[in-house]
Structure formats: structure tokens, C-alpha cells
Amino acid sequence: MSNSLKIIIDFVVLAVIYLAVFFHRWRAKEKTKLLVNTIMYIYVSLVLYFTLMPIVVSLPYIFNHPYKPMNLLPFADYFAGRGDTVRQIILNIMLMMPFGFLVPLVKKQNMLSCLSWAFLFSLGIELFQPLLSGFRIADITDLITNTTGALLGYLLYIVFKPLVNKIMLHLEQI
After folding, report:
1. CA quadruple 56, 57, 59, 60: dihedral, nearest 10
2. Which of 28, 85, 89, 128 could pair with 78 as two cysteines, CB 3.0-4.6 Å apart?
3. pTM (2 decimals)?
């Protein structure tokens, strides 16, 4: 089965979950809640695409390869000069910035709570990656940079909160 087909299966499953579970629940609330929650769901789906997919067709084989333990040396690849680590660090930060921005919109959160959720989300991804593929390894650097990205996203939320509130109020009146 091609990798593209495997990923399409994952997106179909995510769409079914959205329609069967979340859409009806969120639609019952105000329009802005539906919009913000849907944007967050799409964002999480895209994070899963870049970090874990294919998932569904990989599940039966999660124990068919050795689990590589997490690299616990922060920025080891960077200091060793391996690969494109600066690019990876920047991409990991950028990947989680929307998380830090969207979480307080979905549910009012303080910075510590938002960072805790970002840390746990990133930790879940990092621990699950080696299960789905024998070629992936969990890395503490990714956990640090992802959480940093969420912090930057939260700070952007604080800066743009008055504008966001104005837009949300306008959307609710439409």
C-alpha cells in the first residue's frame, strides 16, 4: 500500500471523528466556538501529519521493530554539527506556535497551563514516534523546542488578544 493511501486513511479517520464526535457538540455552542475549535482540530491533524502519519495502518506493527530510547542530551545534534539541526529547531518552534496561540482561544488558559498542555502534547508525539516507525527516535531537543514554540505562540496571543477579541465579537454578530 502506498504511503499516500495510508495517510489518506488517517485523514478519513480524522474527518469521521470530527463529524461523529466534535462537530455536533461544537455546533451547539456559539459560532466562534465552532470556528476556533475546528481550526484547532485542523491544526492538530496537520501536526499529526507532519509528526506521526501514517498512524492507522501502522498500529498493527508497532511492536515489530525495536523501540529506540529517547535521546536525552539536549541539542546533541546541534553541538555535534550533524545534519540540518538549525532548520529542525526552527521548524519545531514554528510547528507549535499555533498551539500556544490557539489553546487559550479554545479554553481560557494561563501561560503555565498552556505550556503544560504543549509539553504533554509534544511528549506524546515524541514517545509515540518510535512505536510507529523503526526509523524515528524521540528527542529531548524536540520537546524543548516545541514547548518554546508554544510559549512564543502564547506571547503572540497576549499581544494580539485585543484584536482577536474584537474579531471574535464581530464574527459572533454576523
Report:
1. 140
2. 85
3. 0.93
